[in-house]
Amino acid sequence: MITNCSAGVAAFTANVFLVTGERTVLVDAGANYDVVSAVREHVDDLDAVVLTHTHPDHVENVPALREAFGIETWGFDPAREHVDHGIADGGTVQLGDHDYEALHTPGHKDDHLVLLSSAAGVGFAGDLVFAGGSFGRTDLEEGDASALVESIERLHAALDGRGIETLYTGHGPTIDDPVADVASSLRAARFAR
């Protein structure tokens, strides 16, 4: 089961997805709200936090989660603050009951990851793409419009034949038609470059 623990929060934060099952994991930690209470509304314990990237709106709640649950975090670059363990490009991480493949997708931020599971039919896109054909901004530090286009191209190719039915995004609603929406995001990002 996947639950957005930041749904309805009226603060600037990222979506924070609780994935329950054999391994109970948060995808991103959010910022500016009591994520510990939000998690405890659904589960008593947490096994890990997996970060799509380390922008503040995705990681500021990591210290509170570490204190409350004694967890460690996983992300692309363990040299970054808030990342205890690295997930390599092409590596896997278990979320709930399924293994997810990590795709390194820089452009929005150098350490950005997308996570995909054919078995679950689910992906976590972070801030690479959004519903309605939008895409992550590149005007922040480490942003790179050309790299972002390449990363969206990579995601679009990775979706081919994989059976991903839902992409959970770092902000806004989920993507229920990943192939079409990512194709739209790719066209828009190419045009904006």
What key phrases describe this protein's structure?
six-stranded mixed sheet, 193 residues, metal ion binding, five-stranded mixed sheet, Metallo-beta-lactamase, Chain A, single chain, alpha/beta, metal-binding, 25% helix, MBL_Glyoxalase_II, globular
Notes on the structure:
Helices cover 25% and strands 24% of the residues. With 193 residues, the protein is an alpha/beta fold. The protein has one domain (2-192): 4-Layer Sandwich (Metallo-beta-lactamase, Chain A). Strands 1-2-3-4-5-6 form a 6-stranded mixed β-sheet, with helices on one face. Helix 4 (145-159) runs antiparallel to helix 5. The longest helix is centred in the last third of the chain and has 15 residues, at 145-159. The chain is globular and about 45 Å long.
